[in-house]
Amino acid sequence: MKHHATDAHALAAAYALGALDAGERAEFEDHLRTCEACRQETAEFEATAARLAAAVAQVPPASAKAPVMAAIDGVRQLPPRLPAPASAPAFGGLLRRRALSLALAAGVAAAALGGVTVWQTQHAQDLEQQARQVQRQLDAVSAVLASPDARTVHGRATNGALTSVVSSERQNAAVFTAAHLPAPGTGKTYQLWLDRDGTMIPAGLIDHDGTVVLAGDPAEASAVGLTLEPAGGSARPTSAPLLLMALPA
Question: Nearest Cα to 99, choosing from 149, 63, 134, 133?
């Protein structure tokens, strides 16, 4: 994956997901020392990757420790896995695979101690379903972040939350990220909106720090809004906007 110097601002997501080679990583880290916007964006993407990883984590029951420790002496250690020679993968596929690895890492770590229990039928099925859901989320988010025409804007909501929107005309999609978002409170949630000629169209819910793909067609909208709504969302905004941010051109 090769980028010109002028593309440095577009590498925050790839850096956060570990999708840069050693040379590109070093160059981007040099860029980070002088670019506050990219440092903020990189921190947001890293936090998002950690939250997606947590989505597949499962805490093993305390009762699982004894049988695991009793059986561990009889488990043969696997030999080291050597990488097979292959041509360099396309950036989009590499990014998605790296992102999925991050998302599944917490689930693997949690399963290590409680391996006997986790692989019981119900637990395995639950984990598999969660992993599929996370993979779908990652695929949708990664497709936008990795798109060559991805454009980013940053904003700050009136409640202090730091926000970013990454949009791609090629993917016909936009991704919203929030950091330092205060808890919405009991019976409340944050709702996203697409502003289409002054009409606010529901675009999804977000109740904590994280990243979501906006519902709807961003090509027909001029801005993204954020309001505090009753749990489950509203058909129309019922409170003053906390944020109204123009979509990146």
Answer: 134
